[in-house]
Design a protein that fits this description.
Blueprint: H1 2-5, E1 19-24, E2 40-43, H2 47-54, E3 63-67, E4 71-78, E5 89-94, E6 103-110, H3 114-124, H4 132-140, E7 147-149, E8 167-169, H5 177-203, E9 210-213, H6 220-230, E10 234-237, H7 242-252, E11 272-275, H8 281-298
Parallel strand pairs: 3-9, 9-10
Antiparallel strand pairs: 1-2, 3-4, 4-6, 5-6, 7-8, 10-11
Helix pairs in contact: 2-7, 3-5, 4-5, 5-6
EC number: 2.7.1.30
Enzyme class: transferase
GO biological process, one term: glycerol catabolic process
Length: about 300
Amino acid sequence: LFRFFNIPMDMLPKVRSSSEIYGLMKICSSLKSGALTGVPISGCLGDQSAALVGQMCFQDGQAKNTYGTGCFLLCNTGQKCVFSEHGLLTTIAYKLGRDKPVFYALEGSVAIAGAVVRWLRDNLGIVKSSQEIEKMAAEAGTSYGCYFVPAFSGLYAPYWEPSARGIICGLTQFTNKNHIAFAALEAVCFQTREILDAINKDCGIPLHQLQVDGGMTSNKLLMQLQSDILCIPVVKPSMPETTGLGAAMAAGAAEGVGIWSLNPGDLTPVTCERFQPQINPEESEFRFARWKKAVMKSMGWETTEAPSNG
């Protein structure tokens, strides 16, 4: 590409590992000193890769899901670069040292997670605050057959379908706002299940538990629903800011800094809250099958055909 566009290669920065000293903080010439003068800059991780490190998913087959505006599920595939046949992206997870090997991951992205709660609050006025949705959904205890596909701008992994649009289906005269709130939380869990199923197919090793982080994990009902729909335990660390933790771990473990050891034997277990499946797998599969049916109905909504006059 550089030859084609006639661009000098030295315009690009050098490729470096995720954990090494790149330089030192320097105070500007007009000031005499600063609190950070001479402090090494020694860690460089992308948002989701940092959360993977912060969750200590260093083993092949370990996975974490970050619940924010969207959802981002990463599965460590070790030192082998796995190319997905089920709609996932292959990415570099980390390289924790100049002489250390590169580790890869499979990634699946959900466009709308926490954003669906904001939509119910700001666009429909169904909830007054993001915290209220847990209480409303708990009061319903079920979606009463209602399914919500929040494909507001198409569907991401594993479908990559830009023509899809959001739908709420399965409504009856008994459906109320609490059922819709429950269906919105279920939608986050179903979308995660789709990605996890794709990862299991690509890796060939079923995941035995899912580690979670991000703002939405404070919703205990959501975490329980997630465990029920995946049929595996969901594990939430007591310290949810794992992205910041992962960046700190990479920086602290760099050669020349050495205040953090990333050897598995030196890592202390993190206090976690576990959510175990509480429904039988048959019910989970039934609900998931209905979700897939709703997804199919959301597709092909947008077309490129011009509207006819009148």
